[in-house]
Amino acid sequence: MKKVQKAAFYGAVFLLCIIPLFVFLWMFMTGLKTQADNLAIPPKIFFTPTMQNFKSVFDQGHFFKYLGNSAIVALFSVGIALLLGLPASYGIAKYRMRKIGLVLLVARMVPFISYLIPWFIIFRALGLVDTYISLITTHLIITLPFVIWIMVNFFEGVPASLEEAALIDGCSPLQAFVKILIPVVRNGIFTASVLSFIFSWNQFLFSLILSGNRTMTVPVAVFQFISYEEINWGGLAAAATVITVPPLIMTVFVQKYMIKGLTSGAVKG
Amino acid sequence: MRRNEKYWFTLPALTVIGIIVVFPLTYNIYMGLHSWFVAGGASPRWVGLNNYVKIMKDPRFWNSMRVTFLFSIGALVLETLLGTSLALFLNREFRGKNLVKLLFLFPIASTPVAVSLIWGMMYNYDLGIINIAIQALGFEPQLWLASPKMVIPSLIFADAWQWTPLILLIVLANLESLPTDPFESAKVDGAHIFQVIRYITLPMIQPAIVAAAMIRSIDAIKTFDMIYVMTQGGPDIASENLNLYIFQTGFSYFRMGAASSLAIILFTIVLAVNVLLAITRKSGDLS
Fold it and tell me: Is A144 in the B-facing interface, judged by CB distances under 8 Å?
């Protein structure tokens, strides 16, 4: 009897796992099918896969350039967020400046469109629309508070004695921070970087308005495909697969902290 | 010198946050009191609270409020119920548990534009897998995204696919951290599994559920990507939530003053909902 129960449980878990996977499988399968196979009714489960759609995604439409744009914007906005956010989160953790957490929480509640309107007006006046500067600046709105949220938790977990010992040994506070504390929280830095990279990569609204032909990021590029490739499902699905694979791979490396990272901001404060 | 030391670490970040976050918000409040057609040559014109007066009489605003409300409540209730139930179901030791958790992280991490695109295909009337599947089961095909009646439930369903896992994983993490004693003594007292859940488990995880709901409510009320990619607010304006309406006002009609005042209203709603949820949370901490 126990065995039957166990088998039923595993069966149910298996069915449950199909739900998150199904959409990705469907996306990938559609990308591997020819146009004729994609239009077939009933849909073909067994088909001869073709790489043609993936090939044409990379051949036409500057897709590499868009991938590069997304990577540049994400890397810079994460890098600057670390540069500013690491000392800040250390300061917040050390001096218990919890009220700043509240500011960050409110910043998260503000609709992105509220940031976009003023920034659009300013960048337009300065002639900075369709530059990396405008995209990196706005993506910093996402990455900076996020890095601080995560890193405050990690710095709070470091025993104060560690830093005191460094100070007694003659380190300045800055030296102690760079040489002693940063290496201790490197797991946190990795998690914060990867998670904020994912958020920047996935960002759509800012890039929709502030990017142009030169700086277009991949979510916007894929969205543009939709309007003139309406029925080319294979090509669209291949493009969608290509942009969503990097965040999924990164997730594997930060899975342990991801949920904590996504919640810490809203729960603390 | 020592007293000021703490600001040396936080000041650079706070200055930047001031510039990129606080300034735009202030500018929004200011711009919301002006009328400005940004595509023309004219400069902003002071109109006081006139934008807000006009908004209150604007049927399209009230439509967007209705859509925002229905979508957010529907998504929040569905995702919280489903996520909590599934977390209770998965809360035991079994082989492959970490893999299951990883699989449920994938929808959360995936690019909204990409998954919305695929959901759009699956909802397609002629070729979508959903209509093909329900026809095979003997039901009538539905105009999922093209019918004013079905479009909001369809969007809620796609949203639930992406975000139920967040609630599930938050609640599950909380369940795993609970002390075991109360459950053991309940077992000794001969309590039924449903009694245990109702009187012991749920009260203990209530703060975590509310915290998860807070995070979801912030994002659900502000949903943009999924709706914009799947329907662009259509058919007509049947799925145009407040965020999409602001976007159209600002970036299709270039009425920046009106868009700013609408954005202030949206922010106020998100803030109010979270204050309400924070009050119901009483106490407790997730981490």
Answer: yes
Q: In this structure, are A94 and A210 located in the same domain?
A: yes
Whether residues A61 and A139 share a domain: the answer is yes
B222 at interface of A, judged by CB pairs closer than 8 A: yes
* Claim to verify: residue A44 and residue A75 sit in the same structural domain: no
Q: At B248, is the pLDDT very low, low, confident or very high (cuts 50, 70, 90)? A: very high
pLDDT tens per residue across span A108-125? 788 899 899 999 988 998
Chain B 75-134, residues with CB within 8 Å of chain A CB atoms: 86, 89-90, 94, 96, 98, 100-115, 117-122, 127, 129, 132
Chain B contact present for A236, CB below 8 A: yes
The answer to whether residue A9 neighbours chain B at the CB level (below 8 Å) is: yes
Q: How many CB pairs under 8 A join A and B?
A: 254
Q: Are residues A151 and A81 in the same domain?
A: yes
A-interface mutation test, from B111, B126, B134, most A Cβ less than 10 A away: B111
- DSSP of chain B: -HHHHHHHHHHHHHHHHIIIIIHHHHHHHHHTTEE-BTTSSPPPEE-TTHHHHHHHT-HHHHHHHHHHHHHHHHHHHHHHHHHHHHHHHH-S--TTHHHHHHHHHHHHHS-HHHHHHHHHHHT-TTT-HHHHHHHHTTPPP--TTTSTTTHHHHHHHHHHHHHHHHHHHHHHHHHHTS-SHHHHHHHHTT--HHHHIIIIIHHHHHHHHHHHHHHHHHHHHT--HHHHHHTTT-STTTT--HHHHHHHHHHTS-BHHHHHHHHHHHHHHHHHHHHHHHHHT-S----
Domain boundaries, chain B: 48-280
- Do A143 and A161 lie in one domain? The reply is yes
Quick one: pLDDT at residue A78?
97
Q: Are residues A17 and A63 in the same domain?
A: no
Minimum mean pLDDT range among A144-153, A181-190, B174-183: B174-183
> Are A202 and A249 part of one and the same domain?
yes
Q: Residue A268 has what pLDDT?
A: 34
Task: State the pLDDT confidence band at B9, using cuts at 50, 70 and 90.
Answer: confident
Range of the domain at A229: 53-267
Contact residues on chain A for B28, CB-CB shorter than 8 A:
114, 117-118
Residues A64 and A189 occupy one common structural domain = yes
- Residues B68-124: tens digit of each pLDDT: 999 999 999 999 999 999 999 999 888 889 999 999 999 999 999 999 999 999 998
Q: Check residues A44 and B153 and name the one with the higher pLDDT.
A: B153
Number of domains within chain A = 2
Contact B103 A222 (CB under 8 A): no
Give the CATH number of domain B48-280. Answer: 1.10.3720.10
